[in-house]
Amino acid sequence: MSIKFYYNDCWHLFDQRKVYHDGQWQTLASSDRFFHDGRWYFFGSGQKKLFGCGRNAFGQLGSGDIANRHDFHPVQDLDAWTAVAIGSDFTLGINAGNLFSWGNNKAGALGTGDFSDSLMPTLVGNSDRWSAIAAGKAHALGICDGKLFSWGSGDLALGLEGTTVSSAPCQIGEHSDWTAVAAGDVHSLAIRNGELYAWGCNECSLALGQEETAYTNVPVRLGSFNDWSKVYANGHSSMAIRNGKLYAWGTNINGHLGVGDFRNRSLPTEISGSGNWRSIALGNQHALGIRGGQLYAWGGSSSIFPEDYGLEFSPQPVLISALNDWNTVATGNDFALALRRGELYGWGTNLFGSLGLGRRLNIREITRIGSIANHLAVFSNNDTTFTINDNI
């Protein structure tokens, strides 16, 4: 078997665990990593396989049944997964630009044009140009060819003016330069040309980041900044990153906004400290983030803080790992997962097997899950987890 690896603007061929570089063959390490010029590079087949574990009461794992999984099981024999979004009891995924959905469809959140549940990934529409997805409590958002779509039962959160339920994706507005989306219980967020937009219900949650707006059923711009890059949402709170700086707003009863207190915020408020925030995972009671490659946690979930910290909550980010090569973080109900060097780590409550340990064992220390080092991405919500890895 021969495999190709694209690096430094050219293809390198490697065979039998060897890579041809700088005029000579070099043997790969057992972990399928290659160290060059101060960085680790990962080699594999290029097959981005999807694996899931955890709660599966509605078929949200896409395994063809409703049995919970305590270790990672493959999701359909497709090899080009790039993104996953997990709702309350349904899942969306992008494979080779195609949109798939599975799980509970009573609200039409699968986007298949009907209200029938699916225990396996089902193709949505016929476009292969989907680039981003988000799943809320009962509604979903997606970007296809730069255009913004919503579906499900989100009332005002659909952003479709008078439409409150749709079982198929419907375009929001006419713009074609949307780049990011996020979905809460009753609100939605999106970024267009660096500008941040929000819509949905704001009267109780303040999650729209607009002080004098009770609700809106169309996207409304927040502030005047035009350099927003990432956006996140949970039930009734929101976060976004601009120029490496992290902002938060919405309900804050557990201190999960990270602004140093427990007061709600009606406007985007910058989290104190230096910038360089890279990845955020926002839960209903807590949040995690990576800043400068280091791992932080905050909020009111004691399971998220390693045991030796002795913390029940913190209204501001707490450094929980001084290692400086973390790159992705995900979180669900009282558990978390993170990636570094392609290795998967997890900790927290594991009632439904959401950590993929093969058993329901709670962990209070950041612990490596499995032995492979070819994980590319990890996604979690509620008690369900998915990982994309290069299935060597």
Write up this protein:
It is a single chain. With 392 residues, this protein is mainly β. It is 0% helix and 53% strand. The protein contains no helices and 34 strands. The strands form 10 sheets. A 4-stranded antiparallel sheet has the order 8-7-34-33, with no helix packed on it. Strands 9-10-11-12 form a 4-stranded antiparallel sheet, with no helix packed on it. A hairpin with a 2-residue loop joins β18 and β19. It is globular, with a radius of gyration of 21 Å. The relative contact order is 0.12.
N→C terminal distance = 11 Å
- Measured as a percent range, the helix fraction is under 10%
H/I helix tally:
0
What radius of gyration results from the CA coordinates? Answer: 21 Å
Task: Kindly report the spatial arrangement of strands forming the biggest sheet.
Answer: 8-7-34-33
Largest sheet: 4 strands, antiparallel
Oligomer: single chain
Poorly predicted segments: 13-17
Question: Tally of extended strands?
Answer: 34
Q: Give the helix/strand class.
A: mainly beta
Can you give the mean pLDDT? 90
Q: What characteristic shape results from the CA principal axes?
A: globular
**Proportion of strand residues:** over 45%
Annotation keywords:
392 residues; 4-stranded antiparallel β-sheet; 0% helix; globular; mainly beta
Short description:
The protein has 392 residues and is mainly β. It has no helices and 34 strands.
